[in-house]
């Protein structure tokens, strides 16, 4: 049996297991889609089953969805390094969409500005809806306003590029626009991420970075720690609320007991990364792994603490005989682009290109690149095609034995050559702009 929104009894049962009753699921606009409808919503043109339930992202007091996120019934299964299995690409959104807050139904614009009402931030739509139910548990007025993130890092997005210390350009990450719609100053904010933050450095770093961002906006931030529960790999807000060992009263107690978000000391950051444990006998692989952990641990720290950590790391690496320690540390922390000015041996460091969260259809990608070029540059179709293919070639250069040179010239001045170069700088892999360069033959 299906409801008017297409949800089946199994769908409602799945949601109820996440502490989301039927009425709340209906009011949130959750609906079931077929494989074809699901693929169209998220812009997929690949084979596979894309049937599932869709969560609309609707801004308070609006009726039209700004975006959708889909939970697939049958995601791909992949093997983890430890031999266990995990679901892959279970939640999908349309490529090119912006990161947004997930606002549960019923939230008013005035609520966003009411600083007397605390905010609880969780990861995922189901957890946010379960918390919305908790906000009204045995009371007529809400205890807090829940907000959802589609991922622990999705409170931020790329906001531009700026010159880096290596002479190139670096991607600049900033808070999503939805942040500016909410009054944070003098408001109590609770970050409620899953229990695996204790063993996942990336989640822990995202929590710290979000806390720093919110505190910079004047919020009083506290961190809620969820305990691990029997028969669960990790515990989320919805898991805890629905579990026999959890429940509403215990969750409210955990929120009340949340500790203030305090930045870790320089020593704590170094210790978590394993820098003090490195010795003269440590191999290069062990040193590299520690520096990569340090890079993750540094997310969200302020300039003063970063400088202290950088200095202590260089000093420790030098003490155990590591050659060029400043260069190693500056490369490891290149995302911050605040390297030691005394180090003149540093090479070019390019920003890392983050892969998209799921595979894309190649023809669709080529069409998107070509359309982007045509928006700003007038070229014959065959030249648009050549530039498009050359852009993709820069990402696959290691798989080829030759690299064709893209020559940009025109018979007249002011024909758009510089504009095309600027477009290419934002499209190709590892761009390095130069000018007035003359080789010696």
What does the model show?
The protein is of the alpha/beta class and 441 residues long. It folds into three domains: 9-260, Dna Topoisomerase Vi A Subunit, Chain: A, domain 2 (3-Layer(aba) Sandwich), CATH 3.40.1360; 266-336, no CATH class; 362-425, no CATH class. Helix content is 35%, strand content 14%. The protein contains 15 helices and 13 strands. It has helices at residues 9-16, 22-27, 35-41, 109-113, 125-135, 201-216, 237-242, 248-256, 266-273, 284-297, 303-319, 325-332, 362-376, 381-395, 417-425; strands at residues 31-33, 52-57, 67-72, 76-79, 85-88, 91-93, 119-123, 145-149, 156-163, 169-175, 188-192, 220-223, 259-260. The strands form four sheets. Strands 8-7-11-12-13 form a five-stranded mixed beta sheet, sandwiched between helices. Strands 1-2-3-6 form a four-stranded antiparallel beta sheet. A hairpin with a 5-residue loop joins strand 4 (76-79) and strand 5. It starts with 8 loop residues before the first helix and ends in a 16-residue tail after the last helix. The relative contact order is 0.08. The model is unreliable at 336-347 (pLDDT under 50).
